[in-house]
TrEMBL record:
It comes from the Eukaryota. GO terms for biological process: endoplasmic reticulum to Golgi vesicle-mediated transport; regulation of ER to Golgi vesicle-mediated transport; retrograde vesicle-mediated transport, Golgi to endoplasmic reticulum. Keywords: Coiled coil. Pfam families: RINT1_TIP1. Transmembrane segments: none annotated. This is RINT1-like protein MAG2L. GO terms for cellular component: Dsl1/NZR complex. Residues 27-54 form a coiled coil.
Amino acid sequence: MAYQVSVQLSPILSAFVNDHFKTRGDMSGLESLVKKLRRECADLDKNIGDLQNKLSVVVRGWISLSDDIRSLSHEINDKRKTFDCSLPGGEHGDAYSSKTEGILRSELPILAKEVGRIEIVRFYAVTTLQLEALVGDLEDVAFAYLKQRSRNDLSMCLSNVSNPTDMKWKHEKLMLAVKIMSNIEEILVNVIERQLHWSGLPKAVDSRVDNTFILVRSQALADHRGLLISLGWPPPLMASNPDNGRRLDISHPLFSMQEDNKETLSLSFISLCALQHLQGHREVRRNSHLGQKVYRNGSLWVFDELVSPIASMVEPHFLKWLEEPKFMFALVYKITRDLIEGIEEVLQPLIDKQRLVGCSAREAWVLAMVRMFSSFLKKQTFSVLAEDYHNGNENPKLMSLWLHLVDLCISFDKQMQTLVSSGNTGFQFQLSKGVSLLAIFCDWPNWLGIWAEFELKDAEEKFKPEVYSEKAWVLDVKRAAQDIQETPQESYLLSTREDFKAPFAAGRATQIAWTMIDRCKTLPDVLHQVQFIRSSAARFMQYFFDLLLWRRQDMEPLTAHLDDDTLIKIVSLINAARYCESVLHEWNDNVRFLEMKVIENESIGDIRSGCCPQTSFFAVETGYLMKLETDWLEEIVSGLLWEFNILIVNYVQNHEQWGSDDSLKRVLDPEGLMLSVDLVEALESLKDHLQILKTALNSKDFLDLWRSVAGGLDHFLFTSIILGGVKFSEWGSYQFKADIRALFRVFQPFCTRPEAFFPFVSSIVKLLSLAGEDASHLLGILSKVQLMKEWLRKHGIYHLHPDQAEKILRSRMW
């Protein structure tokens, strides 16, 4: 099979050839044209030599002048010292010395500045001569390197690139050019390090070196492509046995190379690596001079050239599979996987020989294949879909195809990671920007926004049918009660949705949000991960939180007569919010989110502006949930206290019962304690509600709830009865004590000593239980506040002020 090689000429060369060889008849004047060109080249060389001679004369003149001034300065300094020693003493001598010193102080700095300027000019001239000589040598070497190919016609290209002798000569010339360019770089770096503001000189040198470098690089790449073609690269996509249709092993061209070809490939590899290494140093020097950072994609030109013909070979297949993109991904993975072992075996030793630190043949091969495929996806798939989106042609098929492509990209990235990690390279592989297909969204931020929008819409569409079903919010109260009976010891270490007694909707919401967060994990840039999560997962969670609020607003408000069904529905929302808050706190403690929050703070400038940055990634979301939980718990506490207040209104307002000895309106509780009839219904209702809440509400929130209820009841009874001017007889004090003990029994299942959560009421009971002598003694020391406080503390009364204790004691009728 004959191979055709296209030689790309510069526009100037192409125009020159077209002007002189318009027809086949013009070929007869080739010899005269060559003589003319050689004559012109000789004239140009002569002019360059004349210019160099003139520059040398000028530089020598500057150097001679600099030496004369330096010697003159030393001579003046010596004469000044001799003259100062010969001056006589006295007033005239001192005056003359002062005058001379003043002249020297004003003149010497000017002279020194002039000497320094001359030194800089001398250094500039020497540097210019060195650079001119090196650039001239570089152009001569490059001309010889390029002339070697121009002497050969196109039919000999393939044979020449695989000729070891010819390639060895070219390699020597190319490495000589690289060495010269490296010397030029050292001089330019020295100029920059000395902080000499010679912007014109580096620009002039870079301009000439760039032109030469482009020509040399193009020629080296062309030779390398020709070498690959001569070796049979790329191999066919697939081979099959026509008899049984079974797949045969793909022959790897690099495996079947002869020794001469191996040597030629090695020389070509070394040449390209040397050129790329030199170009990297030149970019670092240029960008450091401009105060910019250099971002390298990590690819090697050698591997890009391996992939380039494969791209041309697979593109027609890709265009046929635009509606079925899974075949494109499968083909790229197959080629990458089938050829990676041969690539590593042949090229890894060359990489080691070149001492390319941190470079792996497997990773470089995968990187080149991913970059090739990424380029096609940008041009032919995502750009087309994005254009349809911006033109208003959005439809379910567009969103479905976009998300399907993202799914394939994520799966493909994982496959590429497996390929690189499976090699015996000793490197811990991490996805770099070039290796991940999702890097497309880093290059096109507006596509990232479209992806996040599609993810959010897709999540909401999947979630709505589930969340609008009442089954997603129902709490299994019977099962929760059974669990409490089986595990009577309350646990406050909650982790799972079942531990929080959260409805199915809460678990489903966090699961969908985490799926969206996990999908952007392979995005190479952390800040783009933050932007995606903020636009998708965070907005979805906020949508769920708003749904919780909407469901509460859609319920009946709590009244004095609490409805158990409404109470359980509110508890379901509290459990859902508490579970989501716990999940978000767990995510906040993840190292990944800690890193993202630091980078986000730096990007928005919170730290630099002096503001206090948020330390957790989901701080806004958790704060919103905590407010919802607090509001709903306070609503339940208020409802319980309100109902209790309504049910004991007669009990509180009947002050006469405490001052009389009538015991007709009494009933016996289970332990024989007398209990006020007006208090029975209130305590039974409170007990039933608390039992339902204990069964349905998560343990953490229930702990806060019953303690808040106990504190509210303590304050209510203290202000309503004691500070309401009630007088207690002996029987009345006993009755109050029995009623309070009955109240404590309501909270007995939740703690060992419920009286500890009723500090005011417990103190009242202690004071009313005092004997007459103790009460009289205490009333006798009321004027001595300090003694009164010590006595109260001694008897375990810490929450009452002496004035309040006096009022309680005086309410007792002895």
